[in-house]
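Forum: Protein Structure Q&A
Topic: Joint prediction for protein chains with partners

I've read a bunch of threads here and the consensus seems to be that you should model interacting components together rather than docking separate models afterwards. I'd like to see that in practice. Below is the full input, 410 residues plus whatever partners are listed. Could one of the regulars post the assembled result?
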Amino acid sequence: MKTMILAILACGAIATASGPKPYAEAPSFSLPASSGKDVSLSEYKGKYVILEWWNHQCPVVGRHYGGNMQAFQKKMKAEDVVWLSICSSAPGKQGHVTVAEAGKVMEKNGGVVTEVLLDPDGKVGKLYNAKTTPQMVLISPKGELLYNGAIDNAPSARTTEEAAKAENWVIKALGQHRKGEAITNPAERPYGCGVKYAQ
Amino acid sequence: MHVYWINPGDSGVPTTVRWTLPEGWTAGALRFPTPQRFESSSGVAYGHKGEVLLLTTLTPRAKTLGDVKLEADVSWLACDEACVPGSTKVTAHLAMGGKQRETHREVLALAKRAQPTKRIDLRAEKTGKGMLLTIPGHHKSGYFFAENGDAVSSSQPQPNQRRNGALEISLSPSEYAKEAPKRLQGVLVLTNADGTTISTNVDVPLEGASN
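Posted by a regular:
Agreed with the consensus. Here's the joint model:
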């Protein structure tokens, strides 16, 4: 009995030593949501969380919402992954929506998301170094930052069909993390419209 | 309103052209004019404003005769405060095999003038924090536009200093850098003491880079 316990402990130690390097902690935040409540990242501990920087009037976001983004969102929903779309467009700038409008606009675009969050002063966007829409972040069930960057490797895709063949960096990181593998692409340069911050 | 260079910088999507050409014809890479910096609340973008002339070299199949049709499908993203998409299909007809005619002389001259000129002497080396460009001569200041956006940060400033008869430009690695690049490729814009500027193509080895 004693030997068995020791053996288990030893295995645990080896797995830790050879495992992937520790990830940074995803910065915590709380933002007003389209549902009317305030949403905190900490509410979703225990689940994978995707953050999507969103500006519904950005042509690059529009190209992704031609079908691929919704398919991606449905796949994530089926896998019990939380999806938070964050709008950091300042009032008066492209893509800005109010709490009252946000849900309707997302619904009209066919988005399948857990919540739309409003970040009009850009604080959370800057906390996550969000530069473009769409920019994507993946957070582990323990609250670790697994991925932050471009949605895929096809900035110049022109059609839904072309984009469907692209490598999706979020899906890749999620798959690797679920298997306990190191994430090979934790940060890919984002593309799209610059986030329309106040300043 | 501006469109984007081959490396769009902190945001954007570069302009692309897809050709439909007669069999056996090939199109070379797009040659962009010297880029400019566009600063916004989301960082620094690299691109072009006003009338933008992009050049491509088309190579015909040997012994092509008669009328040929060349089609280009152009796509771009243009941004200012807001972003708007753009695309167009353009067609040109050429009579091959006849007497050579020079057309579009003025627009071609304009396009060539907007391109970076030939290379000048410079060195690139890896430093503790990033990379250093050393350009011999009397240039007052300079800015390097890296073609590979993963190599050099577009949002960080590029401190300049004059030392030992040369201009030194410090470059910060991009936050998305995977490994130090082995070469630095891009466009260098230099300002002379009299305020005039020149732009040159850069393609040099990065000294001190591992491997």
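The helical segments of chain A are 2-18, 59-64, 68-78, 99-108, 123-127, 160-164, 169-178.
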